[in-house]
Each structure stands twice: as structure tokens, then as C-alpha cells.
Amino acid sequence: MQQSELDFINTLRQSSRYIEQHRGKTCVVYLPGEFIACKESVSQLSQDIGLLYNLGLKIVLVMGASTQLDDAFTNAGIDWQLHHQFRITPTELIPVFQQTIGLLRSQLEANFSQANCQQPNPPTLVSGNWVIAQPKGVINGIDFQHTGKLRKIRHQAISDCLDSGQVALLTPIAYSLTGEVFNLNTLEQACHMASAIKADKLMIYGSEAQLVNLPKQLSIPQMNMIMENAANDEQSRLLAQVAQTNFKVKRVHLMDQNNPSALLLELFSRDGSGTLIFSDRYHQLRPANIEDVGGILALIEPLEQEGILVKRSRERLELEIDNFVVIERDQLIVGCAALYPNDEQMSELACLAVHSDYQGQELGEELLKAIEIKAQKQAANKLFLLTTHTHHWFIEHGFHLADISVLPQKKQSLYNFQRQSKVLVKTL
Ligand SMILES: CC(C)(COP(=O)(O)OP(=O)(O)OC[C@H]1O[C@@H](n2cnc3c(N)ncnc32)[C@H](O)[C@@H]1OP(=O)(O)O)[C@@H](O)C(=O)NCCC(=O)NCCS
To answer: What domains, with CATH codes, occur in the chain?
Structure first.
């Protein structure tokens, strides 16, 4: 078999657990105007949505259009104003606004039809008056006119639409109960919609500025901390908007709008491609401190007795505590892992352990990711470890078996030939 065929088969095998995990789940995807403006991204997305639909996901697309509206108003010679990042929408803008959104929607439908024409059971893209708007009103003396805010979502109607096998599309256009047309912020709509229909995932494409320096995973307290020291206003606005969902959506994914494969990577690969903000884990992953020594010892001693982990004395643990990260749940240390920096840009992962009552909840994976991030921050480009019992778990998490000779010199000289541990290496 050729290498490319092998890679394909391995990738397919690895994605099977995600396919099973996502079947029947509801996903709201926010597409900013800048994303829609890129033809390649739109045509890739249309295909990918067809694939997700056939894998059993229920999809709501929320389409932004700021870039296109800016262009349309400029071309029509109409002046418009922003106030606190919101466009003021006077009555004379409305015809151009409706025309622009109508055209974009039609283009997206055309793309969608073309991308899925080969499928035996192609999804249909539908839009409707699911969102009820009301005027944003007069704020600090500024009348926002036809710029609206979300009043109500007909969430049952949209859930029925998804259950009947359709892909739902929302745009910035929404209507009030008096029949007036309003221009709604679509990121806000996506966040509210995801909460209202209790979506399993909210997937947001963002710009480079919005995503700059965000780590791969964020708990809510971590996100709140970043929000306070955001890299720029755009990032702080994006995170503030996500916070407004009150985390009724368990998982929010932030993806790079310039990466047309971001959606599939995020859903079907272990490391994803963007940032995952999660609210469904009530434990805390943090650097260990001296008070954790007792908890770590209680966790690792049974594993030491079984010979799974190498014995560590309390004194050694106290000296090396800064190398550890722990997961604490209800004041109990339920997981730990340590990173030992080394020369040659190769760091050692050691003492990865999850309490037996908490195994199988991906805590091991979370600890491994934290150690990888820590190693990268210390400029390591490889991670290695020695294990006697767990090499399969590590191989499934991106490591490969290696010879002792690849280890840093000092480690080679300390290698215990009686223990016959396997050497595993991962390139970061
Ligand atoms: C390895 C370990 C850290 C994984 O933690 P975890 O939180 O259960 O890991 P995850 O939830 O991310 O993964 C669970 C999966 O790994 C599998 N797994 C657990 N131990 C394994 C092992 N020794 N070999 C192969 N697979 C293993 C589980 O069967 C489960 O598979 P499934 O998803 O198909 O059901 C945990 O099992 C542990 O503490 N083991 C004992 C200590 C150890 O071996 N440490 C490594 C030495 S450095």
C-alpha cells in the first residue's frame, strides 16, 4: 500500500470515534461576511456542510454580511455611520440592505446546490422568519433606526426544521411583529440561537486579530481572564459575545476564517485547529503547588505499587512540584502530569495519571495537551516519555515508538535496562 493510501486509511480510522460522537448533535456555525467574501472558502464549506449532514449532524448557518454591506452602500453612494461598532441603519439604506442580503443568500444557495449535487440525499438550505426583532432604540441620543436587536427566537420552529432534515440559514435580516425590517448583528444572533435551541456546539469563524494568541482550550474562568487582558478590542468583543450565551452551549469553537478546512479539523481531529471554550467540565486544570503533594502522592502510590509508575518519594515530589500540573475536582486531585525540561529541545513527560474513578473522561488527554503547551512555551519541539504499560494510549495520542538512542544523552545513561520501558516521542 502506498504511504498516501495508508495515511488516508489511518485518518479515516481515527475519525470514527468523532463521527459516532457527533451523530445527531446540533451545531450552529457563524460565518462572518469576510468568510463569505472568499469564494474558495464558501465552496469548501458548502461541501463540508453536506458531509456533516450525511454524518447525521443538524446544522444552523448564521451568515454575516458587514463586508458586503459596506461595499454595497459605498457603490450606491450612500453614507452610513457606526456607533460603538454597530451600524446605524436609516430607512433609505433598507432597499440596498435587502437587495445585498438577498443576493448573498441566493449565491450561498447556488453554491450549496452545486457542491452537493452528486449526493444521493442532498440537504436543502432553508431560511425563514424565525427571529423576531425589535428596534435597538435611541442610545445616548443616537437613534439606531432600523438597526435592531433580537427580541425572540421561534426555537421550536427551527428545531422542527432541523429534525425534518434541512439545514437552516439565518441572515442579518429580521422582522418585528409590526412587520418592519431590521438589521441584526449576526454574531449576536448565532450566540442567542445556539443557546435557544440548546445546540451542542457553537462554531465561530473569526479573524486573525480576534484569535491572536488564544490557546487551544479554554475553560470559562480562563476565558474570563483573557477577556480582561484581551490582545485587542476585536478579541475582547468576540469573547464578550461568547460569554453572553451564559454557556448554555457546552462547547464553543473559535476557528480561523482563512482556513477552509478549519470546520472539519475542529470536529474530526484530536487537536482541532482553533480554540475550544468548554463549560461542561467542572474541574480545574492548574499548575501544582506544595499543598498538592499529599493529593498527588495519594493518586500515584497505587500505580507505583503496581509498577506502572516509577516510585517518587515525598521529598523528591516536593522538590519537583513546579514541574507538575494537576486536575482538581471538588478539592480532590484526580489527575496529574509532569514536564521535565531537557537540553536538545526535547522535554520529558512523566507521571501522567488519572484517578481510576475518573478515567475515560478525556482528563488524560487534557493533561497531555497542557503539558504539550507548557513544553512549547519552553521552546521544546519534541516530547518523550518512558512507559511500561501505556504505550498504546500514547500512540493513539500522536506519539511513536522510538529507540533509546534518540533520548537526550543524560537520559540514555540513566535508562533502566531491567525495567525495559518503551520510549515514545511526539513532535510538537
Ligand atoms: C493513561 C491514562 C492517563 C489515561 O487517562 P484517561 O483520562 O482515562 O484518558 P482518556 O479519557 O483521554 O482516554 C481513555 C481511553 O484510553 C484507553 N486507555 C486507558 N489506559 C490505556 C492503556 N494503558 N493502553 C491503551 N489504552 C488505554 C481507555 O480504554 C479509553 O479508551 P476508549 O476511549 O476507547 O474507551 C489513565 O488510564 C491512567 O492514569 N493510567 C495509569 C497511569 C499510566 O499508565 N500513566 C502513563 C505512564 S507515564
So the answer is: 3-278 (3.40.1160.10), 284-427 (3.40.630.30)
pLDDT digits (tens, 9 = 90+) for 34-82: 999 999 999 999 999 999 999 999 999 999 999 999 999 999 888 888 8
C-beta atoms surrounding 343 within 10 Å: 10
Residue 330 pLDDT: 62
Q: How many CB atoms lie within 10 A of CB 351?
A: 24
Host H or E run for residue 371:
helix 363-377
Between CA 408 and CA 388 the distance in angstroms is 19
Residue nearest to atom 2 of ligand 1 (CA): 364
Helices (H), 116-246: 155-163, 186-196, 208-211, 220-228, 233-243
Cβ–ligand 1 contact at 395 (below 6 Å): no
3-state secondary structure of 154: coil
3-state secondary structure 246-309: CCCCCEEEEEECCCCCHHHHHHHCCCCCCEEEECCCCCEEEECCHHHHHHHHHHHHHHHHCCCC
Q: CA angle, 370 as apex, 364 and 372 as ends, to 5°?
A: 100
Q: Is the CB of 304 under 6 A from ligand 1?
A: no
**Ligand 1 pocket, mutate which of 390, 392, 394 (most atoms under 8 A from CB):** 390
Q: Whose CA is nearest to atom 36 of ligand 1?
A: 354
Residues 6+ apart with CB under 8 A from 173: 97, 98, 101, 181, 182, 183, 184
- Let me know: does 355 contact 299? Beta carbons within 8 Å: yes
Which residue's entry shows cell 500514547?
A: 394
Going by pLDDT thresholds of 50, 70 and 90, the confidence category of residue 292 is very high
Rounded CA-CA distance 72/79 in Å is 11
Question: Could you tell me the three cell numbers for 213?
Answer: 494568541
Whole-number Å distance, alpha carbon 220 to ligand 1 midpoint, is 26
